[in-house]
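Internal tracking record. Fields below are filled automatically when a chain is submitted to the structure queue. Please do not edit lines marked as system-generated. If the sequence contains nonstandard residues, flag them in the REMARKS field before resubmitting.
Queue: standard
Priority: normal
Entity type: single polypeptide chain
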Amino acid sequence: MGINTTVLNGISQNADDYGIESWRIEEFLTERDFLSRQTKAKDIIQDIMTAHRKKELLGPVVELAKMELGIREIDPSLRDHVVHALLSFLLGVFINEHFLKPRGQTVDPFQWKLAGLFHDVGYPAQIAKDILKSYTKQLNNIKRDLSDTRPDVYFSVVPVGFNELTNGVNSLDLIQERLDGWELNIDAKYEYTKMVNSGNVCHGIISSLSVLYVIDMMYQKYNPRRAYVDIYDPPGVNWNQSYFKNDVVPACAAVFVHNLPARCFRSAPLDRNRAALPYLLRLSDCLQDWERPSANDHTGLPDGDFDIDTPPGRLVFRVADSARRKQIAKEIASAILDPDIEVL
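SYSTEM-GENERATED OUTPUT FOLLOWS
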């Protein structure tokens, strides 16, 4: 049957809770032309967020899609992240409803929208760094061929101001508070500083800070006192600061950790009982490995090579390709501790 059909059938009865129109998802999943599919993905993401008046966040996704279209021929290792974001989101809805909810660990739909749909919006920064690295590699190779002994040339990419929110608030402090609440042994400022000092870019960190930066500006516009009271301006939208603290910050904290290396989870792996949101994001991101085009594979593995099932007490993920199966299982084990997950 294939995992797309399984997921579509499995989330149809909960579609309204997540702002999903099942017929549009089916149209998206059956679209064979990748560029058309990417356009449909952007439109669906916009519609999902419009209900919460957060459609302004679509901007980074649009720019991500534009960059990927232009860069794909330059960087053969580049994979799609726009369609991937929507597929990961849909997969996460399935897991949330059929695996987490029966165990009382449900992730809030709005938090999942933010985390699932926007966890990769920082990829353009990482892509740019990779392209610059390829460029300097060529220059340094030429230098060596000419027996030139000067030091290698390189670019240093330094993010500036990403962690500075309004009213003197540091986003890393907000994220750290949430990570501590999840009992994760991760130092947000250390990871951010390590990224900056290395000159590398972690798209998870950049995605997290970017989304938090944008939404903070929106709350500042409509609730400048950041009051914990209901403020309906514009009508139908509640800008109570409690939603920023209790929904937005956790979603961004989950995005922050979703791409961190295995060393960050050795002493405190992601556990669905105490950290359901980052658990769901990391798991969905690892599992969504079908139909991901790249320069070397224009279609990606077919969805028929994957499937998912949730028999009582378990989550079973099937992968036809043995190499991919082992890789996915390894990725999950690097950050998640859950004996109830099987990759077969």
